[in-house]
Amino acid sequence: MTPEPPSTPIALEARDRDGARFFSPSAGRNKMIIAEWLAEKLPSAASVLEVGSGTGEHGAALGDLRSDVIWQYSDPDAASRASQLAWKRSSWPDPLALDLTQDDWAAPLGTYDAVFSANMIHIAPIDAAIGLAKGAAQLTGTVFLYGPFLFGAQSDASNLEFDASLKSRNPTWGVRDFINVKHIFENEGFKQGQRFDMPRNNHIVRLSKH
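^ thats the sequence. predicted structure below, dont judge the formating
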């Protein structure tokens, strides 16, 4: 594998590649933990839309555990979509170019058993989280978000430091407060918001209409 040049603006990390496939250090650390968790929660033959799929490794990891799941990759970045195409199973549809800031991004899509997004809402403007909630409300009754979150005075110090680092790079970025994320999705009909602790001070947030 050869390292991707640091000027490539698709991630906050250096990524290796093998042909079209990118390899993310952060995905390498968490993909199996997430896949194992999702494998237990998703229904049989589930259809899942992943928003902001990055390298495509999360879907591939779940596909190794649950061959019945149909995983729909998406990303606004063309190089990322090429990596996802290289990782995808033959039975899966091709990756989609989705822009969550467009009001009608979900309109051409069907319905899904779940929408999943990992490490996206903190490296995008808050409008992306709002757009995700609005679009997901048209597509599914269940959303899973993975990544760091803040919990007011109980926030982990490393996540507060990460938040400051992100904002120094781009003032519209930042680790999102769990309560604020819940409110964004509640405004779109997702009545329940649960969080599950994951390694390295990350969490999976499950938002449901039921």
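The helical segments are 25-41, 57-65, 78-87, 126-139, 157-169, 178-186.
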